[in-house]
Amino acid sequence: MSNNTITVIRGDGIGPDIVDATLQVLDHLNCGLSYEFAEAGLSAMENTGELLPETTLETIARNKVALKGPLMTPVGGGFKSLNVSLRQHFQLYANVRPVLSIPGTRARFEDVDIITVRENTEGMYSGAGQRVSDDERVAEAMSVITREGASRILNYAFELARKEGRKKVTVVHKANILKSTSGLFLKVAREIAETYPEIEMQEMIVDNACMQLVMNPQQFDLIVTTNLFGDILSDLCAGLVGGLGMAPGANIGDDCAIFEAVHGSAPDIAGKNIANPTAILLGACQMLDHLDQGDRARMIRQALQDVIAAGDRTTPDLGGNGGTREFTQALLDRLDQLQAG
């Protein structure tokens, strides 16, 4: 197997705990990966004086693939989200967020299997036109949707549906009110859907989509939408399968891809051996799929399902008595069993 070097950003808070657990699993499966470690977030600020050092951007650009732990972003004021900065810098236009029901997670639903594809660089997250008046009585921001950006994400979503054998793509919008931005997105979706006759396209207004997801999530297969709606809906979908601790994310561009856990850095439990590494492990599975190592990705997903279903060595958030290390060891043991056949 060729030697693939990936950039690893361990991140803030529980990031090092869960990233290190993930690297253990990847090494155990002999994935042929080598790691170039880079810093971002609070640890980078402490060591370099910068939240996102140029050397980190250079290693991601060089290696083309990165695995990233959670990074701290303050609410309200303060610095711009590092996740948004990375997506915009590398034009990682596709945010892919799969959720899958796993028995043993205390989720409210069963048999949920949804992929949300979110446009990652435009819309309300473009940062265009942000202004607060001097007297702080008026705040403004601009949503920008381009035909090129809409075409790019919609083509990606339909291609992913075809590749994954998904039968239906639900385009979520608000074109009844946001007639310009959502209207253009929906118009482009209708044009592109005509080139995928084997895939059913469903149109759904975002508020109805939220209601339908909590009433009957099994009706959804793959969702594609704009940036702000996708941010909200993908977290809602995570809630259907047990929360953000079960939710990975891939950020895909033409040249680079960054894979991550989408939850926060949880600094209050950092280093206490209780963080659940499932989300970042599932992100690593997306990375392995991207690197044409789908067999290993499937094996990790199977081991996760088996260990979580057994329940005795999982982390406290999953109802188990184990910690991060015990959960990771249980995965390694299960992988040995699966490899032995």
Automatic annotation (TrEMBL):
Record carries keyword Oxidoreductase: yes
Source species: Microbulbifer halophilus
InterPro entries, per database record: IsoCit/isopropylmalate_DH_CS (IPR019818), IsoPropMal-DH-like_dom (IPR024084)
UniProt EC number: 1.1.1.41
SUPFAM superfamilies for the chain: Isocitrate/Isopropylmalate dehydrogenase-like
A Pfam family hit: Iso_dh
Family named by the database record: Belongs to the isocitrate and isopropylmalate dehydrogenases family.
Protein name: Isocitrate dehydrogenase
